[in-house]
Amino acid sequence: MKSKALRTIDANFNRFKEGIRVVEDILRYEFSSPLAKELKSIRHIKIPNYKEVVLSRDAKNDILKPSTKSELNKNSLEEIIISNLKRSQESARVLEELFKLIDTNTSEKFKDARYNLYEIEKEIIKILEQ
């Protein structure tokens, strides 16, 4: 793998999965929505050379690790859902681009995931408006 991209892949893969998991659990437990199942399947995308990616991790020295005030203040489940969907969509885009350097099949998986997340977001907004 391209060693310069590994830390970025690691951080974005974690963001992608974590953001989806937050939304998945809220939809599952608070709304009993079958969309949780769709999110679960998206969250289970695999990446090649996972161990190598993890070994590139340096979370202790991440210069943007501290939270900003806006990250700490959420006023509703809707805000949490939307911010986590956006987080996952953005991470999917980064992963799509970086995997173009390494593995185009994986790049396409993240592109598909991103578009699926856009559609799921629309369905979630409908649920939240009920």
Structural class, from helix and strand content? mainly alpha
The biggest beta sheet is recorded as: none
Count of DSSP helices?
6
Portion of residues within helices = over 70%
Distance between the termini: 46 Å
Radius of gyration, in Å, reads 15 Å
Please report which band the strand proportion falls in: under 5%, 5-15%, 15-25%, 25-35%, 35-45% or over 45%: under 5%
**What low-confidence regions span 5 or more consecutive residues with pLDDT below 50?**
none
The counted number of beta strands is: 0
Number of domains: 1
Order of helices and strands: HHHHHH
Mean pLDDT: 92
Question: What global shape is seen?
Answer: globular
What does this structure look like?
The chain has 130 residues and is mostly helical. The chain has one domain (3-56, 75-129). It has six helices and no strands. Helix 1 runs antiparallel to helix 2 and helix 5 packs antiparallel against helix 6 (104-129). The longest helix has 28 residues, at 3-30. The model has no long low-confidence stretch (mean pLDDT 92).
Task: Looking at this protein, list some descriptive labels.
single chain; 130 residues; mainly alpha; 0% strand
